[in-house]
Amino acid sequence: MLRRIIEINEDKCNGCGACAAACHEGAIVMADGKAKLIRDDYCDGLGDCLPTCPADAIQFVEREAAAYDEAAVKVHMEKNNENSLRSSQLSQWPVQIKLVPINAPYFENANLLIAADCTAYAYGDFHNQFIRNRITLVGCPKLDDGDYTEKLTEIIRNNNIKSLTIVRMEVPCCGGLERAAKSALENSGKFIPWQVVTISTDGRILD
Predict the structure, then answer these.
(1) pTM for the model
(2) What does residue 25 show for φ and ψ, rounded to 5 degrees?
(3) What confidence tens digit (pLDDT) does each residue in 122-164 have?
(4) Integer Cα distance of 38 and 5 in angstroms
(5) Burial class (CB in 10 A: 0-12, 13-18, 19+), 195
(6) Residue 105 and residue 109: Cα distance in Å, rounded?
(7) Within a 13 Å sphere around the CA of 118, how many CA atoms are in the beta-carbon half?
(8) What is the CATH architecture of 2-86?
(9) Domain extents in the chain
């Protein structure tokens, strides 16, 4: 049938994974550093992924495609949820900002996640939505002594970071982590895609 569906321009895609995280149907996966539409019948054509893409790599097209299959999506997402509950998506160690080195091989071409400690406890699907396909750094400005800005600046400045995602809680003390990450990006002199995601104390994504 002829219908509206997304199209991903892999040449523009920077591999940040924001679209995959935004897709509620699991129609987009990250493979070989690029976003891919895995099945036409998983895409509902509503385009929740479009506004999250910092590289303008996704657009709507009208083409012959299988009809959206809600039942197939439900089975697919249930399977994904079962797998995510069993599987850690963490790809490096350590994760604490205070402990990570400034230079490490895993920073090369990395999509960097800087997250407040509490976010992984508040948001149930944190591994699947945020840690997957990212290098993870965690910290708490209220509990740790000192400021993260200098170290984060050196990490971003001295490595080829492709994107930056900051995940914080809605509580005021998390503002320190967000400010440190933003200041580090500015101080590094680099221009890379970045986003801030805020988690509520009852485990919802607020923005």
Answers:
(1) 0.64
(2) -100, -5
(3) 998 898 889 988 999 999 988 888 899 999 999 999 999 999 9
(4) 12
(5) middle
(6) 9
(7) 20
(8) 2-Layer Sandwich (3.30)
(9) 2-86, 105-199
